[in-house]
Amino acid sequence: MSVPVTERLDRFLADQLDLSRTAVGRLIAQGMVLVNGTSTRASRPLARGDRVDVTVPPATAARTLAPHPMALSIRYEDEWMLVVDKPAGLVVHPAPGHWHDTLVNALVARGTGLSGGDEGRPGIVHRLDKDTSGLLIVAKNDAAHRMLARALAARRVDRVYAALVWGHVSRPLVVDAPLARHPVDRRRMAVLAGGRPARSAVEQVARFDACDLVRVTLETGRTHQVRVHLAHVGHPVVGDPVYGGGGHRGVSGAGRSGAAALERSVPRQALHAAWLSLPHPASGDRVEVRSEWPADLRPALAAASGDPRLVDRSEVLDYLGFFESRS
To answer: How far apart are CA 296 and CA 88, in angstroms?
Structure first.
């Protein structure tokens, strides 16, 4: 792989390979990483044009996936794949701190056949943040996983999010801004020159006093893409604890008290993966799945709109026109 930006070797590989820096450090110490054909140290600064070669050792025995029974909302299923409506708070795949209570563990308990996928992530074709709810594709066999991954790479899978964002999106936007790990806080992403290309299309669905309900369509699928892109254009997701900026404090005048009430009503980032359209891995026919605005975020939508009746309206996205044809 060719290095697009100047960065420490271990940080660069952790980002590019989606590994921890501890795992990367182990590869470097074992001589599995060469820079311009030579072994080196983890802290080596890379320069534009350096070539980094990585040898991945044979996989060791996989960690046993313990079943974790829990109710799941399955929105589509056949012998090739399923689409699950993931609740907020559920981690997608096992990782430190969540080895046995993830979506993958719940699928194992359900008896769902899963593709091999990446180590520790069987069946997982793409991911959602822990505190983002909504639709997630799961492959049931390796052939389905390969076909779905190719469709994602070819941008033939439409992923559309619903979000409450601060301020007003007066016209449709296309956010074309590359993303990379934040240079200081590696848990965050940031818009950085030389990062991985990332594009999101943003449209206003409904305008409220202090915020908008928007539709965000992904053209790429980077870590935290929706949240970072919306913050980058000045419309952070309401309730986002990482990229939300000043929250209601950014609202001035008479609307500030209402914005504060809205912020108190939102239990997490107001972001939901609401709409999927994809080619079936076997037939190629389009599969479309929709998910309504979740119940835990309906009080926030009611507070934003000033209409308390929205708390009890289960099909509120449809009511507001979210699922109408995209421009």
So the answer is: 9
